[in-house]
């Protein structure tokens, strides 16, 4: 991908963020919308759509510095623009386990997240069909890119670990200034991508994994469910178990 095509991709991603922001503003002003569903729908859509396009920029030189820099920048932008959205089924499941979400709200959030994941996949394919860049044309075929470049057990462990560390950090710094916290989380996610991106993609978000690798789920369903759905959810819940149940029990014994 040359500089001109890279700039086109960046412009496309900026346009998507602006469009989502406008839709969220309209929804927040209208009492007719189910705000919970719409915030999750738009938030997850933005993350999935942007990540689809970011994956095409992974070969920009120098590697991997440019890709990591873009990962950091767009993670910060997500944090700034998607206030009020969870946009990760593993995080929603954690909130449900903690009792902060009722069954109906949890189902609503999760359905919105996976609906957005599918919509983002379809939307980006339609945009790529325009053939604006050569990378868009090459990305069109619906083939499994085999993101798991290690054993399923190792991949499960990595996605579990990334989800565990992410949710532990979010819990540890829950009261931190949001403007600082978004940079901390962005650095953490960027480090995950650097460490495990070549092995599993370092996704740790079930909806995002579904959006990026729908064809892989169709071909190797149970392997991908275990690695990209079950592992992140276990990681997020284990943080709650340790933080809210194990550690308080140890403190009482001491």
From TrEMBL:
<dbReference type="InterPro" id="IPR051883">
    <property type="entry name" value="AQP11/12_channel"/>
</dbReference>
<feature type="transmembrane region" description="Helical">
    <location>
        <begin position="148"/>
        <end position="170"/>
    </location>
</feature>
<feature type="signal peptide">
    <location>
        <begin position="1"/>
        <end position="22"/>
    </location>
</feature>
<feature type="transmembrane region" description="Helical">
    <location>
        <begin position="224"/>
        <end position="243"/>
    </location>
</feature>
<dbReference type="Pfam" id="PF00230">
    <property type="entry name" value="MIP"/>
</dbReference>
<dbReference type="InterPro" id="IPR023266">
    <property type="entry name" value="Aquaporin_11"/>
</dbReference>
<protein>
    <submittedName>
        <fullName>Aquaporin-11</fullName>
    </submittedName>
</protein>
<comment type="similarity">
    <text>Belongs to the MIP/aquaporin (TC 1.A.8) family. AQP11/AQP12 subfamily.</text>
</comment>
<keyword id="KW-0472">Membrane</keyword>
<feature type="transmembrane region" description="Helical">
    <location>
        <begin position="66"/>
        <end position="86"/>
    </location>
</feature>
<feature type="transmembrane region" description="Helical">
    <location>
        <begin position="106"/>
        <end position="128"/>
    </location>
</feature>
<dbReference type="GO" id="GO:0016020">
    <property type="term" value="C:membrane"/>
</dbReference>
<feature type="transmembrane region" description="Helical">
    <location>
        <begin position="182"/>
        <end position="204"/>
    </location>
</feature>
<dbReference type="InterPro" id="IPR016697">
    <property type="entry name" value="Aquaporin_11/12"/>
</dbReference>
<dbReference type="InterPro" id="IPR023271">
    <property type="entry name" value="Aquaporin-like"/>
</dbReference>
<keyword id="KW-0812">Transmembrane</keyword>
<dbReference type="GO" id="GO:0005737">
    <property type="term" value="C:cytoplasm"/>
</dbReference>
<keyword id="KW-0732">Signal</keyword>
<keyword id="KW-1133">Transmembrane helix</keyword>
<dbReference type="GO" id="GO:0015267">
    <property type="term" value="F:channel activity"/>
</dbReference>
<dbReference type="InterPro" id="IPR000425">
    <property type="entry name" value="MIP"/>
</dbReference>
């Amino acid at each position: 991908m040359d500089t001109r095509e890279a700039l086109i991709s960046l412009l496309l991603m900026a346009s998507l963020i602006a469009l989502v922001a406008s839709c969220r503003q309209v929804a927040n002003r209208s009492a007719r919308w189910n705000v919970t569903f719409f915030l999750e729908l738009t938030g997850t859509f933005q993350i999935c759509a942007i990540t689809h396009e970011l994956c095409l920029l992974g070969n920009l030189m120098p590697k991997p510095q440019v890709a990591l820099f873009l990962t950091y920048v767009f993670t910060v932008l997500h944090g700034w623009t998607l206030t009020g959205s969870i946009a990760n089924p593993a995080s929603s499941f954690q909130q449900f386990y903690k009792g902060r979400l009722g069954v109906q709200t949890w189902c609503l959030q999760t359905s919105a997240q996976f609906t957005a994941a599918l919509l983002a996949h379809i939307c980006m394919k339609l945009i790529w069909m325009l053939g604006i860049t050569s990378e868009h044309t090459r990305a069109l075929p619906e083939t499994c890119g085999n993101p798991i470049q290690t054993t399923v057990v190792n991949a499960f462990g990595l996605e579990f670990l990334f989800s565990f560390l992410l949710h532990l950090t979010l819990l540890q710094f829950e009261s931190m200034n949001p403007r600082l916290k978004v940079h901390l989380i962005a650095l953490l996610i960027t480090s995950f991508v650097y460490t495990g991106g070549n092995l599993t993609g370092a996704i740790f978000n079930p909806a995002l994994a579904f959006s990026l690798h729908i064809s892989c789920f169709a071909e190797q369903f149970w392997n991908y469910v275990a690695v990209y759905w079950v592992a992140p959810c276990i990681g997020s819940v284990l943080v709650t178990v340790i933080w809210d149940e194990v550690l308080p029990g140890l403190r009482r014994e001491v």
